[in-house]
Amino acid sequence: MLSEYFPRGVNPHPLCRLALVLSIVFAAGRAGAAQFDAAGAGSAPDLASMPLEALMQVKVRTATLLSQSVADAPAAVVVLTASDIQAFGWRTLADALASLPGLYTSYDRTYTYLGGRGFQRPGDYNSRFLLLIDGMRLNDAVYDQAPIGDDFPLDMDLVERIEYVPGPGSAVYGSNALFGVINVVTKKGGDIDGAQAAGSIGSFGEKRARASYGWHGENGADLVLSATAYDRSGQDLYYPEFDTPDQNNGVAHHLDYDRAQSLFAKFAYQGFRISAGYGSRTKGVPTAPYQSLFNTPQGTTDTHSFIDVTYSRAVTSGIEIASEVYWERYDYENIGLYGAPAVANVDGDKAIWYGADLHATVTTVPRNKFVVGISTMRDAARDQYNYNADPYQPMLDDRRSSNSVGLYAEDEIQLPWHFTLNAGLRLDHDSNAGTNLSPRLALNYKPTNADTFKLLYGRAYRAPNAYELYYTIPVPGGQLGNTSLKPERISTTEFVYERALGENAHATLSLFHYDAHDLITETPDPSGLFIFDNVAHATANGVELAYEQNIASVARIRASYSWQLARDSATGGVLQNSPRHLGKLNVTVPLFHQAARVGAELRCESARLAEAGAAPGYCLGNLTIGSGRLIPHADVSFSIYNVTDKRYADPAGPNFTQNVIPQQSRTFVLKLVYGF
Known about the structure:
Elements: H1 14-30, H2 52-55, E1 59-60, E2 68-69, E3 78-81, H3 82-88, H4 93-97, E4 103-107, E5 112-116, E6 130-133, E7 136-137, E8 159-166, H5 170-173, E9 180-186, H6 189-192, E10 194-202, E11 206-216, E12 222-232, E13 237-238, E14 251-252, E15 258-269, E16 272-284, E17 299-316, E18 319-338, E19 343-362, E20 368-388, E21 393-398, E22 402-415, E23 419-430, E24 434-445, E25 451-462, H7 466-470, E26 479-480, E27 488-500, E28 505-524, E29 530-551, E30 555-568, E31 581-591, E32 596-605, E33 608-609, E34 614-615, E35 618-627, E36 634-641, E37 649-651, E38 660-662, E39 667-675
Parallel strand pairs: 6-9, 26-29
Antiparallel strand pairs: 1-2, 3-8, 4-5, 6-7, 8-9, 10-11, 10-39, 11-12, 12-15, 13-14, 15-16, 16-17, 17-18, 18-19, 19-20, 20-21, 20-22, 22-23, 23-24, 24-25, 25-27, 27-28, 28-29, 29-30, 30-31, 31-32, 32-35, 33-34, 35-36, 36-39, 37-38
């Protein structure tokens, strides 16, 4: 039984807390004050309030860099809005992504990992998804990891929308976009419209505070300033694998804490925009991975910093130039105790990278709309270090750098008989990964205003990262670098059918097949150490069904079902951490003549293979109740996560003693957002 893995005791008085919030909502229904949307008040239109027919025409650029409607983009693009984040109480980017068709997450009590279309091997980092903030690459220069948990350096209250483009994206973005591209678009000053303060408290000592300011002036002048602090003391966790008297009977005491701070600033004027961000997160490590000593102080700190500058202008009628220059830094450090006698070991990295992109959008050629561009990136520091602290003993001091440059072109061609052809090609040269060519073709057929058929083909690659290439610590259980690694590659074929059912309902069917080659996998070396090598190949077939509907003022429904079968090409066996079935349901219901709202979420996953055995399937429910009328100029919400207190677990990576990692029990969060 998985229940034996969980800490003893439950949350106190959940029924009392629920009764309290229901009374608040009832009071809100009788309030007469004007509604104030504290998560995004202002002059900007609310995407979630649009009819679905209009929402499908919202312009996105993530798929091709061309401005295209969601319906016309060469992929099954999904857009989540600020209203979705508010309605369902999503605290992290991972919470939001877990609601999308074909995606699922795993959490090892330190980091959150993203799986897509049946692929997310335990122990892998988020290096096969490309994560963007306002179009700027966020994956770091050492691990290529996309931070989607509390290490994501942006408060979710600052997110205007999330654009998810499934499938290979290397034809536009180069390395890492094997399974999809995620673009987080930040709010404008007009969305915040003045000073705003937010605070929340929750289970296990959770506290979060945010102060923001937004301003919008003439000629497109726009300003956003924001600061956030977060702290969570966590809980004592029980792991039977360590249940001995000298290991505190398997209880990790005061090691589940989580602390984070973030800053964000953005200024725009006409075609110019500059943004800067900083996020630092420290997480206690209760699971004793990598043979560290159980129930001893261990913590990991991740710090992201970035500056992004963009400028765009129309040169002539039909020709627009867009440019970007960015600088980013990522620092990681983990401190833990190892061996007997216990020795404090420090493991970390420093990654600094900067780059530029210049592209032109040309619409002067009849029936054509195309983009040509060049991007370049300098990984100025891909440094990794490891040492024993006392007595001091250096174990690793590796300093690297690399360069890459990419040339790309995209063309959208209007063909006769309601056909559109999207063709893209990118040529990348990396000083470590060599030259890679990434094509993409998409044929769209729109026989009626309600029906769209898309036939898609694309190839993508992922260059080996510095950790896989160079991390070497030649001690028992240690690791060898492998400078002979080749890039991973994937080929994907997909068929998409989208059907508008009136102006307030929409359905999507996706059929996909992919072949992934030369997958970089950590394997035992004859020396007894571990080494990354290109030894794995995978293939998958799947179906994704999605449905969305607005029912007048009664409810908004978004549902999806995914069937996916991902196998090891050599053995035919099903991949680890690959659920066969995924089911999602998100429902928002307004109450008391729009005075309050309820957001209910249900996520179901079938069983997943682990290193030994399996993690059983489960269904997880979350509930958020909110009101914008209870307090003038404020929005109050109360969220219950894991409503039924379901005991469930995720497969653990190969460097864990545990076979599965138990997940969070039921928690509560009360939140207030106030606009001045």
